[in-house]
């Protein structure tokens, strides 16, 4: 069940004093602190990868929030030429979403912008995984996950579930905003580096995570997962009805609008399909007219037709997840379109309602088909642990539950049509599908303020403060002189400096103001 649990990137240890040259020696302590912050991130990512006790996505998020201000500060110092590279910079990272064969290599990424992008990637994936862990820890609320002796949710469990679903939606919207920001900002900075390297990292290609299309696809996936989580929250009040009554008409009075649910699922289907389309950019086709010779010609043709700028392909579990969730969302959208047509339409359109729910049943049966299910479930050798098997069983139960509900609606409408209305069942292609409807968007991401600032920026800020103080004194002198002129006093308009008496008055006032300010600071600190 969404959201998807992503593998996180991993890295190796680095010491910034060995990478950077600090000519002014003004950033020595900052580089040491940045090295410590990056080491903390390295340990957090390593703990999650090895499933170490006490490791969690929260530790990764905390480490990123500590390290990111230092990283952005070092980038600012490099752009201001206050830090220089001692040699060709290499930042080793393991890209978790790119397929490289049986093992993920530690890629020698070039440029500090690669470091920036991988840290942001760890942050957005950590947010999604944190939402996944919150939802996994909630009390069982779906009918198939309840025990036989448990008839309904307690009030305490319902409150906990509502709070958990709300928190998960917020985290997924944050992850979507971070992915959008990285695609529009960090990827543009990294593009010249990728072009200069010819699209290659020694013998490997650049990871798919470094492309703008992948980050936009991740943003849409996070947003689709957030909408599905919001739908779960929307359906909580009618869970008791599902415990004690069989599926089918009529809907309970407090049931969410079927029209709203259909539009929400249509929007989810649109997001998943858009994400799949963006990820297909990385697919590496093999041009051959004879399908039986594809395997024989794969290696030679790839070397000829693949441009160097093509990134690596996305790992198969993510592509299977998107395919399954997009088809399931479309099936549920058609189910609720049929329910809305049959239950809430003033005109008698049982035939049209039956067409919608029958098409939904066909799509759900397609998901239940053994061949399709074999394609959609994880086939990776590394995913054969108990946790992955439990997740696959949960997904299987979810499809079976929806298929059971859909069959009940088909049976009910079929009976009405055969005994009362006798309407023709139109093909689903002849029906008009409405547009989807979003209920929220991605949360805009604001990067943290840098912990390391170039000294030139500090000097400019000090000069700006001095100019503001000078302008303030000039305004005081001007108003004082104008008041004296109105009273008949003589004052030279061409004089650039006020008379000694005015200077002494202004100076004394400034000193008094400074003393009062210092006194307030002391009193406040005490």
Description:
- It is a single chain.
- With 526 residues, this protein is mostly helical.
- It contains 16 helices and seven strands.
- It folds into two domains: 10-145 and 153-285 and 303-430, alix/aip1 like domains (Serine Threonine Protein Phosphatase 5, Tetratricopeptide repeat, Alpha Horseshoe), CATH 1.25.40; 471-525, no CATH class.
- It has helices at 16-19, 28-49, 57-79, 112-136, 155-184, 186-196, 212-234, 239-244, 258-279, 294-305, 316-344, 350-368, 370-376, 386-421, 455-486, 500-525, and strands at 10-11, 20-21, 84-85, 90-94, 107-110, 200-201, 204-205.
- The longest helix has 36 residues, at 386-421.
- Residues 143-150, 285-310, 378-384, 458-470, 472-478, 484-515 and 517-526 have low confidence and may be disordered.
- Pfam families: BRO1.
- Residues 509-526 have a biased composition (Basic and acidic residues).
- Residues 506-526 are annotated as: Disordered.
List the helices and strands and how they pair.
Layout: E1 10-11, H1 16-19, E2 20-21, H2 28-49, H3 57-79, E3 84-85, E4 90-94, E5 107-110, H4 112-136, H5 155-184, H6 186-196, E6 200-201, E7 204-205, H7 212-234, H8 239-244, H9 258-279, H10 294-305, H11 316-344, H12 350-368, H13 370-376, H14 386-421, H15 455-486, H16 500-525
Antiparallel strand pairs: 1-4, 2-3, 4-5, 6-7
Helix pairs in contact: 2-3, 3-4, 4-5, 4-6, 5-7, 7-9, 9-11, 11-12, 11-14, 12-14
